[in-house]
Amino acid sequence: PTFTNNYTYIVNATAVDLASNSVSHSHTFYYDGTSPTATISIPIAGTWYSSLTNISGTASDTGGSNLSSVNITIFNLTGGKYWTGSIWQASVAWLYTNGTTSWYNDSGLPTFATGSTYIVNATALDGASNTGSHSHTFYYDAVSPTSTISVPIDGNWYNALTNISGTATDTGSS
User: Fold this and answer.
1) Phi and psi, residue 9, nearest 5°
2) Which string of b and e fits 68-78 if b means at least 16 CB within 10 Å?
3) pTM here?
4) Fewer CB atoms inside 10 A, N or C side of the chain?
5) What angle (nearest 5°) sits at the alpha carbon of residue 124, between those of residues 118 and 126?
6) Per-residue pLDDT for 6 more than 90?
7) Exposed e or buried b per residue across 56-65, where buried means at least 16 C-beta atoms within 10 angstroms of its C-beta
8) What are the pLDDT digits (tens) for 123-171?
9) Which residue, 88, 34, 83, is CA-closest to 62?
């Protein structure tokens, strides 16, 4: 049969034997075929970070069974590993979040590596085991660039200056 979303159903069953003995049972169930949605607020997709102490977002469910949880994964695309909350490993590792409609994880985050690309995935789960996911890619660079000024020379006096020059380098985000 085709079920209607966010609707209550009752199943009745009766068994009768040849001697006319009978027994009846009734079960009620609820149908939710709608996946919840998850969004990520921090980190912002495509952004460079020099510090990241919180991963957060929102989730919603219109299917009727309500949100059960939101979990995240942190994948180091550069290193090819998932964060477990304490170490990096090759297989997927899910991290719990605090909250559901407004969720966050601010504990057990890794020490992010400069020059690395990361993917955060948030997956919302509802009471009917429907899931909805959302991912953001971000970049990490905690090393400041360097710069030097060649001309003018610090502390010198000039009566004419035709050239200002220097150099700058950045080993992280460039």
Assistant:
1) -125, 150
2) bbbbbbbbbee
3) 0.81
4) N
5) 165
6) no
7) bbbbebebbb
8) 999 999 999 999 999 999 988 888 999 999 999 999 999 999 998 988 7
9) 34
Structure tokens at 104: 């966050």
Share of the chain above pLDDT 90, in %: 85
What is d(CA 57, CA 118) in angstroms, rounded to the nearest whole number?
Answer: 17
Q: Look-up: residue for tokens 């035709």?
A: 162
Give 116's strand partners: 140
Which amino acid, residue 76? N
| Torsion region of 78: left, alpha or beta (phi above 0 gives left; psi -120 to 50 gives alpha) | alpha
What is the separation, in whole angstroms, between the first and last Cα of the chain?
Answer: 58
Sequence letter at residue 18: L
Token pair in block for residue 172: 């992280």
Query: How far are the Cα atoms of 3, 41, 59, 82 from residue 103, in angstroms, in the given order?
Result: 31, 10, 8, 20
